[in-house]
Amino acid sequence: LNGDLVEESAQRLKKELTGLLKAPWKSIALLMKSIRQMDESALKVILDFHDEYLRLGRYSAILDPSPQVDEFLLEHKDASRLDVFGTEKTFEERAFATTREIELRKKNKS
């Protein structure tokens, strides 16, 4: 992702993230180092995607947020539902552990 994630771009963001719901990946990191600004409408789109991705038994997180995005996320309590990582390595470790937990829970329910 890059540029501004604001109301004017929220529908485009929603379309892009909705497409990712059909992708085969078990985990996705939204790279946000190039985002200059973000508003509540974009946060809602990201949170809706995150919730749906979790419902599908997958894991998503924010990776390397710009200082502006990091500050925005800290100011909005709803954003606390999102994991935020500064490096790919820490994201990958958490993503692997989380998706493994989800798979084990599914097997135990069977």
Describe the structure in your own words.
There is one protein chain. The chain contains four helices and five strands; from the N terminus they run βαββαβαβα. It is 53% helix and 19% strand. The chain has one domain: STAS domain (Transcription Regulator spoIIAA). The radius of gyration is 14 Å and the shape is globular. The chain is an alpha/beta fold and 110 residues long. It has a three-stranded parallel β-sheet with strand order 2-4-5, with helices on both faces. A two-stranded parallel ribbon has the order 1-3. The model has no long low-confidence stretch (mean pLDDT 92).
Estimated structural class = alpha/beta
Q: Provide the β-strand percentage band.
A: 15-25%
- The strand order across the widest sheet is 2-4-5
Quick one: biggest sheet? 3 strands, parallel
Just name the CATH architecture: 2-Layer Sandwich
CATH superfamily: STAS domain
Residues in helices, as a percent range: 40-55%
What count of domains describes the coordinates?
A: 1
Q: What's the overall geometry?
A: globular
In sequence order, what are the helices and strands, one letter per element?
A: EHEEHEHEH
Rounded to the nearest angstrom, the radius of gyration is 14 Å
What low-confidence regions span 5 or more consecutive residues with pLDDT below 50? Answer: none
Name the assembly state.
single chain
Q: Using DSSP, what is the number of strands? A: 5
Distance from first to last alpha carbon: 38 Å
CATH class: Alpha Beta
Quickly count the helices: 4
CATH topology: Transcription Regulator spoIIAA
Average pLDDT reading: 92
